[in-house]
Design brief:
Length: 227
Amino acid sequence: MTKARRIGILVGMGLLSNLASGTRAWGQANAGKFAPPDVASATDVAYPVNTTTTGMVSLVLSLDNGGRVQNVQVVADTLPLTAAARASVQNWTFHAARENGNGIGTNLPVSVVFNPYNPGGASRGSGALTPPPVVTGNGRDYVGPQIRLASYAFYPTNSVVNGTVVLSVGVDASGHVSHVKVVYGMQPLNDAAVTAVKQWGFQAATQGGHIVAGKICIAFVFQRNLS
């Protein structure tokens, strides 16, 4: 065997060794990787007729490993708005949580704000919302981000649009909003909803007893002008 060939074989073996080491390192870095559940698509939430009630309804959805809704728990009840929120979310679709690339059953928090007609925040109900009660787990489960501070969105000035905006809100391990995605909505209501939720305060999600980044679904149902 020539010297050049021996060198080539050694170099090739070194490259294979490096590739194997890189593959092991990648696998170790991604072992146990967790992706939280999320809302995939949504529809309008009908504002109940014959009411001017405003407020927030908070739910916890139990999702199976395919993202299908198995149960809806009411965490914060606001009559007569709760029934409308609960009925609507069961028609939405969701991404299941994933661990090591496999879908797993988890819970996803969803809050629906029935927003007053309050251009510029000048009218009734333009202030803070009462955060929902704290949801606890058994230390092993995933517990999504929780709302600690919330307020209504300001209805866009010089607009007659009404309807629903549904947001997927990422909350990092420090409890800060990391990103907001509009899943369903229309302008100029989208901008009003995103601006509002970026001012909210959150408690970070936990998974297996550790603080992790997570996602929460927040919807704003903008009431029509009833005056």
